[in-house]
Amino acid sequence: MGYSLLGLIILIADLYAIYQVLTSGASTAAKVVWTLVILILPVIGLIAWLIAGPRGDKARI
């Protein structure tokens, strides 16, 4: 049961990340690349998107 809950959390986080990518102001090529990375590598892609995603440069201090 623990693994299925973790999988569900990752799925929801990935769907949120893909939604954020598709609604961002990034170029179409960047949207396609980020979406593919998140779909092919769900956990690593999500972490990479959180760190350096299309909106990542706005979060810098």
TrEMBL record:
- What stretches pass through the bilayer? 33-52
Q: Which InterPro entries match?
A: CLS_N
Alphabetized, the UniProt keywords read:
Cell membrane, Membrane, Transmembrane, Transmembrane helix
Can the keyword Cell membrane be found in this entry's annotation?
A: yes
Membrane disposition: Multi-pass membrane protein
Please report the stretch or stretches of sequence annotated as the Cardiolipin synthase N-terminal domain: 12-54
Compartments reported by the entry: Cell membrane
Q: Could you tell me the superkingdom of the organism this chain comes from?
A: Bacteria
Q: What is this protein called?
A: Phospholipase D-nuclease
Organism expressing this protein natively: Phaeobacter piscinae
